[in-house]
## 1
Amino acid sequence: MTANPLTLPSRSDSMARQRALGRKIVGVFPGRYPREIFWALDLLPVEIWDPPLEMERTGAHLQPTICSVVRLGLELVVQGRCDELAGFLFPHTCDSLQNLASVIHDLLGSGKPCFFFYPPKAPFGEAARSFYRTELEALIRTLEEHFGTLKPERLEESVSRGKDLYRLLASLYTERAGAGLDASNAGFYRAVRVVEYLHPDESVPLLEKFLEETRAPGEAAGPPVVLSGVLPNPASLLDALDDLGVRVGDDDLLACGRRLPGAPDPAADPLEALTQGFFRSPACSTLNAPLRQRMDELLHRVRRCRARGVIFVGVKFCEPELFALPRLRKALKEQGIPSLVLELEVNQAVSGQIRTRLEAFVELIEQTEADL
Amino acid sequence: MTGAEARGPLSRGAGVRYRLMRDLGAPVLMRGSRFFRKKRVRRAPDPALGPPLACSARLREIMTRHYLLARYAKGALPVAWVTSGAPVELLRAFGFYTVYPENHGALCGAKGMGARLCQVAEQHGYSQDLCSYARIDLAVDLSGQTPVGRLPKPDLLFASNNICQTVAYWYTVLSERLGVPLLLFDTPFNYTDGPRRNDRAYMVRQFEEMIPVLERVSGRSFRPERLQEVLLLAKETAETWGAVLATMKARPSPMTIFDAFVHLAPVVSLRGLPVALDYYRILLRELRQRIEQGQGGVKNERVRLLWDNIAIWPRVRDFATLFAARNMCFVTATYTNAWAETAPYMEGDDPLEAMAETYSRVILNNSLAHRLELMEGLVRDYHVDGIVIHSARSCKPYSVGQYDLKRLLAERLNIPSVVLEADITDERAFSEEQIRTRLEAFFETLEEG
């Protein structure tokens, strides 16, 4: 497998380039938000999921029982590494991130504008749909107060750019599920995660090139698995899977597969397209999707890539993921699909114990494959 | 299907059994329990604490009766399991019998069953890092173990994420396990001041979407005037509870916050029913009498304290005596205050709008700026000398931010405080040694002050 077919721009280089083009950078904490609105205002949203930092100062602000995604996000702020940002966006995702937003905005005084975005948590009825649209409008209004007026044609253009990007990501996922990409697991996630910090003017051509250079129908080898959890981290886990010859065929990760919006109707106006994209996106624990829907979609992912097993890559203390775990595992077991649960800390190297468990799991799924 | 056409989950036989138990069985059992309680040898009262509140016996009866009748409610009345911050008034208007798993979890914790039940859930794959109320509740469903005999299976689950997102995940699991519908009342978090216009519209529309479901499950039609009556009753109950808490401004305070933790049960679980209001009127009379007589919850009150967060239920009695022995009395808490704070919003021409406003504004749906302001106000109004901050492993929205709140309160009010890392019901998260060390240092600071 090709480890890394492309040279990827670093976050700092990309942010410097965008600033030189007159764009301002907004730091975005984890969750769902409409990137297109930012692009249309000449803003670059740069997401803060797993900054590579040592935890030095967070202990003075957060309990050790808070997940490492939240702790690292705060570490970035309290280490003073956000000076070049024009503001922060806090999408509402979970209790800990909700309070992190308030710690930064109300108690620490970051000195930067803070914006908030609340995706509805009960997306069952028309109330949620109309709220989502008004929430988009409210976000536009608050961003306009700081960054100037949003021109309708720019929004239309951005939404169209977003559709290109998501179509491309969907193609990458489809090719991968069909064993049609010659890319390592680590290489794949390094590539698709550029959308967290690159402007689509850069990410779209880069991902097109990645698809072109790695497309190799039927050539990908190794037993496929599905990853489920929050994000594909630590990198050493992906490396370990690569070493063991395991191919990630699909993912149910909040930062990745679960955030791919569904395709909107072609005639929908820009805000309606964003609304439809949100409501047609995959089921997610953080949006309180019914468990039956989560189970069905996970099984669909398993079937789509003919996965031999599912690895739950949980972040320690992540409640949204942990609640659903027993039922999801049971549903998999009923279908004869083995699963493995790993509790991980973001950016921490895979321990010998985890490596041993991974090896045992790979042996198990290889055996299952052989029996079939 | 309209409410009138719907039959709901009810049966005539169950109705007869329920009414017999309510009108005959429960009163007889309550009388018997009173008789035996008089005969029972009581634990010697702690010498540092004031005499127990007389109406505690009445509270015990009310809650025992509530859990007793719950066993007979299934089939007689529509049954709902409800979260503590959910707008239960809407369900009352449809005649639901409501059970509060959080209240039940607290009861299990106070009876020392928390860790054992949590372990049952853990054996079934639920992580030890999940909220212990949720683990206890799942364990009750998995094992049937409960100190109240039996909990009725619900016909409906009703949750609001105004207290945490955890309840939404927890009730989503319950909905799938029990095969019953879940109504989730989604309250956008107030990052700044109160709900915005689009938040209000969203919340009201959710209520409108819930009404047909409630009509179908209960078999009753919606009557706005009935909801208005229930809401007014709930408002008066919350106000009376507020008056009960306000008695603790007196020196000495007529009860301690550990008493208030226990007497909180009716405003949480029976809000919108006459029994809760009647009870608080009795309690208020007794507390006012104690103030007149100069009788305190702690006999020799010298230091007044504020408690932040939910109680450490397994340790309520231990903490009451520990602090009383040092003449320290907890006179207020952000937690108990939560059910009084929003009472002013519970009234309006449109009951759905009033409910949206009220339930959006509960403490945990507001930013930490609101909490800081609230705590500053409580310190001033209740003449507080020190703060005990319970950092509850189970409760992220209550606990994330507490370290900075502590720092800011010290800077602004020059008030000492201590953080106790523990849990609401899981005793395994309680480190005796660590807590003793922290409290000793806190006591020294207070005594020096």
## 2
Amino acid sequence: MAGHKIDALGQFELHPILGGMGVYFTQSELMMVIAAVIVPVAIYFGMRHKAVVPGRFQSATEICYEFLYGMAMGTMGAKGKGFFPFIFALFFFILTGNYLGLLPFSFAFTSHIVVTATLAIMVFILAILVSLKNQGLKFFAHFLPAGAPVAMAPLLVPIEIMSYLSRPISLSVRLFANMVAGHVMLEMFAGFTILLATGLGVALGGPLGILPIVLNVALIALELLVGALQAYVFAILTCMYLQEAIEH
Amino acid sequence: MRRFSARFSRLVASLVAAGALAPALSTNAMASGMPQMEFHNPLVVAQFAWVLIIFFCLFLAVKYFSIPQIEQVIHNRRSKIDGDMDSARQAKAQADKAVEALNKTRNEAATEAQAKIDSIIQETRASSAKQMQALQARLDKEMHEAETRIVQARDSALKQVDQMAKDVAQSLVKQLLNEDVNDQIVNNKVQQILTVKS
């Protein structure tokens, strides 16, 4: 193998930019900043003509907005309108992060559990605060499912609490694992090409090495799907948690 | 379908990742373990604060800048469409009114025309009846006069017949008898016969 090894996880290492600028600023944060800039800038350029009959870019922007608005309102109801900007920002932050990570020499900050966990904990805490504000102490009554016999409480209440507490974990791990898996696969197949070319020689390994590249093209398509899907799942689960917090 | 594809992709991803991670974790000296899990690394942990800050900035930008921008455009479009619909509705109402007025005028005109036609027919009938009456009267009068004239003519003719009969009788008597006879006697006789016959 001529000493070549596939370093599937090295891509997730963080490197300080400009020496971290004293605040641990890495490529991950740079991508976050780019994502946070792209979203409003893209919307600004999409909507700047304010056309009654929208062009392509404006149409795309409006379709995104309508889609998210429909999803958020459909899940949370009219009472949840105040949370729509939060859902909107969350969805596009994750989506842009996922898609930025697909660009060559880029970095997917959503492949870091700290990032996804922070977002998930933020959602979790927000949902708890909204619940406490709306329901007061009744919020804790939900840990005993309605209609369940009181005798079952010692069993049910811990289960319910556990399931409630596992929400931020599942929310963050789902996104994190999907992104990591996708990027590891991309790296693995790209590595295969190099392994084939170096291990079998360019004459034989070169043509064979095309196969992993073809697979990588398909994987990029899959990652485009996964990236959008995970952003959607994160957003809709957030909507559902907030809906629970608003309604009950 | 979405859920299925999500599950499927996750399944495939985790299977492949498991295969990929195992050798990478065991044999790779460059990255021992997942860099994401190195929680003693301040670069990893610092992301916590950075996410909060950057996401909060994005949230503010979206809430106070992007969403109002989109909503304004959508709102303007909606109000423009509503306005256009309103003016279209008004135009339709006006057109309906105009059609109604037109129909009304036409009906009135038709009624008026019909009334005129009726009155003209009536007048014509009346005048023709009058003319007929006058004609009839004139004819009656003329017939009456003609009849009178005929009667007079007959009478006068008859008178002349009497005289002719008397003359014929006198001349016949004269020729038969070859002598003059008293005209008076002949006349009386003829008169007697005529009176008996008539």
